[in-house]
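User: Fold this; tokens only.

Assistant: Input:
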Amino acid sequence: MGQCGVISSKTVLVFLNLFFWAAAGILCYIGAYVFVTYDDYDHFFEDIYTFIPAMVIIAVGTLLFVIGFIGCCATIRESRCGLVTFSAVLLLVFATEVVVVVLGYIYRAKVEAVVNHSIQKVYNEYKGTNTDAPSRAIDYVQRQLHCCGIHNYSDWMNTYWFIESKNNSVPVSCCKPTISNCTGTLMRPEDLYPEGCEVLVVKKLKDIMLYVILAALTFAAIQMLGLLCACVVLCRRGHDPAYELLVSTGIDA
């Protein structure tokens, strides 16, 4: 029964190590996704809120790959030193993911306040040219999120671009895609997106941060299972004479 328990724990541990390799790729993908997605909204949100979580996620993904390699080697070779190292690194990654979850909750709570503070400034910097970064950011957000203005299209009337252009129209990125030959004129408000961008930008950023938090919690739970299995194998290896005999016989063979 003792040998069966150890072998079961070892089997679970091997499968978990293989899963860690897959998880490493998934976490690196999530980190890259956060970088790329937030890059489209970086004028509405400070870089620190995107750079730190994304870098931590990618670092955790890299560590998981190392953990999977160490864990597989240690489990197959019955290495006590390897299993201890595996457990220590796994504990470090678990602590890092706890940090990711905490930072995620902190930053997620700040999203609305930060966006509220920055969005008016970004809209006032709009120049309507592709060479201008704030203009590209606003046009991208309005097309992707199907929104116009901060609260609605009438917010454009208070921007420097609208006042200077004197054409009584909003950017064509406010136009609904189903409307042909839309020029953004305020004479035809039914051609424009009715919803403002502020609420949708906040929702988008909060959703992305929530995905990061859920991913970190999920992998942290699985890592605790791996840590538990490693501890079981270590304890049985140190206290079960039958298991020591089984290991010795296997090595001698």
